[in-house]
Amino acid sequence: MQYREYINERVHSLYWNDDLNCATTILITLSEIFQIKLGTQIVNAAIGMHGAGKYGAQCGLAEGSLMFIGILGKEKGLELKEIVTRCYYFAKEFEIEFGSLNCRDLRPQGFKPDNPPHLCEEITKRAIAFTLNYLNSDSNGSN
């Protein structure tokens, strides 16, 4: 994949230098790849989207990607119904690929007070590559 090095470097930087969560990291990285400027409110909306504020609910890797599918869909002039369909198929394929949509299932070591920071760095890189592949494929519900 042509973006592998960029994804690796950007995710590491956003996690360790900016201390961002997975949803925000996904949104920023994908927006940079697709050269779409994100508004401050969009980035702010992702603040608590890492398993619902570490509650362990829907994973920010899925949430950030789903938000970006909506953003990109509108940029491309897609109808709402088409964007919803693409989100549906993304969620379905994400669950097949990663085994769950829930943070509590995907996060290495779960949520413990003594967890080291940014446990999800590697799975975030994989999720961005997966999302990028999905966005560039013909199997994204647009058939």
Write the layout of secondary structure elements.
Elements: H1 4-16, H2 22-33, H3 40-45, H4 51-54, H5 60-75, H6 80-98, H7 103-106, H8 121-135
Q: Helical content, roughly?
A: 55-70%
Strand proportion, as a percent range, falls in under 5%
Largest sheet: none
Q: What is the H-and-E element order?
A: HHHHHHHH
Alpha-carbon Rg, integer:
14 Å
The residue ranges in which pLDDT falls below 50 over 5 or more consecutive positions are: none
Distance between the termini: 24 Å
Q: Keyphrases for this structure?
A:
143 residues, mainly alpha
What does this structure look like?
This protein has helices at 4-16, 22-33, 40-45, 51-54, 60-75, 80-98, 103-106, 121-135. It starts with a helix and ends in an 8-residue tail after the last helix. The longest helix is centred in the middle third of the chain and has 19 residues, at 80-98. 62% of the residues lie in helices and 0% in strands. With 143 residues, it is mostly helical. Helix 1 packs across helix 2 (22-33) and helix 2 packs across helix 8. It has one domain (3-128). It contains eight helices and no strands.
